[in-house]
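Form 7-S
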Amino acid sequence: MAQYEEITIDQGADVALELFLVNQDGSTKDLANHSAFAKMKKSYNSDSDSTWDFTANITVPASEGRIILGLTNTQTDEMKSGRYVYDVEISFVDSGGDTIVERVLEGIVEVTPSVTR
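Output:
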């Protein structure tokens, strides 16, 4: 089950969020051979015109379980202020060739308005 977290983003600013993933036993999650993906939308049913993709980079070494999520100031400047939903997923291909996807984080993003636009 994904963790829930509320995030605040300033409209028109660069965003970098660092995630540290751990297993249920508290040990660091090894992200070797994993990929990470993250999106935010105005609502769960929004079309692609109101969807933003975060860059989602697993840091080196992957054994540290860190993911950096990012949005550019150009992306956040295009967003209307208000509430959005987001999630972060990781995936890998198991030994049988099946892709395993796990949602690790989800929640609400509050985009605060910019005066200097």
